[in-house]
Amino acid sequence: MAETLRLEVSRYRPEEDSEPTLQSYDVLLDALNHVKNEIDGSLTFRWSCRMGVCGSCGMMANGEPKLTCAVPLTDYDPAQPIRIEPLQFFPVVRDLVIDMSSFLEKLSNVKPWIIRDDVEATEAVEFKQTPAELDAYKQFSMCINCMLCYSACPVIGLEPEFSGPAAIALAQRYNLDSRDKGKEERMDVLDAHEGLWGCTYFGECTKVCPKNVDPAGAIQLYKMASATDYLKSLLLPWGSK
Amino acid sequence: MSGGAHEPAAGLKLYHPPMSLWWWLERRAYFKIVVRELTSLFVGAFAVVTLLQIRAVGDGPEPYAAFAAMLGSPAFITFSVVAFLAVLFHALTWFPLVPTTIVLRVGEQRVPGNIIAGAHFAGWLIVSVVVAYILLRG
Ligand code: FES
Q1: Is residue A222 less than 8 Å (CB to CB) from chain B?
Q2: Is the CB of residue A105 less than 8 Å away from at least one CB of chain B?
Q3: Is the dihedral of CA B1, B7, B9, B12 positive or negative?
Q4: Which end of chain B is more exposed for a tag (fewer CB within 10 A), N or C?
Q5: pLDDT tens across A72-82, in order?
Q6: What's the longest Cα–Cα distance across chain A?
Q7: The complex's ipTM?
Q8: B109 in helix, strand or coil?
Q9: Which chain B positions have a beta carbon within 8 Å of A108's beta carbon?
Q10: Domain hosting residue A67, numbered range
Q11: At what angle do helices A165-175 and A101-109 cross, to 10 degrees?
Q12: What's the pLDDT at A37?
């Protein structure tokens, strides 16, 4: 027989369970999809692109948030079972599927789009950008909204209202965009305890990010900007404007 | 669909995982950071002692002598040693993080993180040498 591997998967079937339980499967090296196709069709999880782009396959693998399509099984010791659980700090809908509505809410709160009041949204205008201007925000635009950073951040578990790493990094992505004029509007949302200042700088978000976005860095720079604005408004007669 | 645009669909029986009281022991990185946060209590305590010391200097020679005697008591020396270790841990784990909070550019180039962190360590060393010189001189 081919080599087998043991997966321990967190199951939550809302009709019959009040909390998740673990179920084990011995599988060939095709893991979750193999389980779903060959062993247990009721196992529920999200995935789509299988190439680390869509951000839908985030799960906890042995306690670490991972994009499951981007982690080779060879990274794991075949002698030990691999425990697969839904992303932590999120409510669970079923098995490995989490409810992401709080995340979507936080994301839209920071207005992650280009804000201008000088042109109509429907107007066909072109804003040119130099490569240097693109570089200023490019790193933060790589976010695929996979929510691994939320699952790595204990503040999300402790203070569910916290805007969280990806939303703040995305706000920063637009703030740093030379075409955008919405910095102050976003600061109004984020210069709050549940915004920037909820971050206690665990820095785990940056470590787990599969796209090297460095949300922790974005938040700290944002805090600096907010603190400098405050100091300026305090010390300079013409304020921060 | 229920009320707002970003609410879970109505009728779902969501499971809300509880957060363990011991979450900070579950990952090494969490533990290290919680310890670093706790060491700031010692950083704060040390600052308060220094402020009180400055006040004692202002109060005249006698109150200062009393304060100095208190600083020399075994209990206080123990506190100082513990506080010193805590401050040391805080600084050693904090300075490497500083580059993420500061973006310095020289021309087009971003100054590499280890230079910024290195500058902080160098500044710390220089201040320590100056303080040691002032204390040990007389
Ligand atoms: S399936 Fe799209 S990121 Fe993994």
Answers
A1: no
A2: yes
A3: negative
A4: C
A5: 887 888 888 88
A6: 79
A7: 0.80
A8: strand
A9: 5-6
A10: 5-98
A11: 30
A12: 87
Is the pLDDT assigned to residue B4 strictly greater than 70?
no
Mutate to test the interface with B, among A93, A206, A214, A228 (most CBs of B within 10 A): A93
Residues A188 and A106 in one domain: yes
State the pLDDT confidence band at B3, using cuts at 50, 70 and 90: very low
Secondary structure of residue B106 in the 3-state scheme: strand
CATH of the domain at B90: 1.20.1300.10
Contact of A149 with A202, CB cutoff 8 Å: no
Residues A140 and A212 in one domain: yes
Counting every residue written for chain B, the total comes to 138
Q: Are A115 and A208 within one domain?
A: yes
Residue A82 near residue A5, CB atoms below 8 Å = yes
Residue A232, pLDDT above cutoff 50: yes
B2, pLDDT greater than 80: no
Q: Which residues contact B5 (CB under 8 A, 6 or more apart)?
A: A104, A108
Pair (A42, A24) in one structural domain: yes
Residues A56, A46: contact at Cβ < 8 Å? Answer: yes
Distance A105 CA to ligand 1 centre (A): 22
A82-85 vs A5-11, strand pairing mode:
parallel
Give the total number of structural domains in chain A: 2
- Best of A59, A101, A138 to substitute, by most chain B Cβ atoms within 10 angstroms, is A101
* Domain assignment of residue A219, yes or no: yes
Structural domain boundaries, residue B59? 24-101
State the pLDDT at residue A29: 43
Q: Of A64, A98, A132, which closes a domain? A: A98
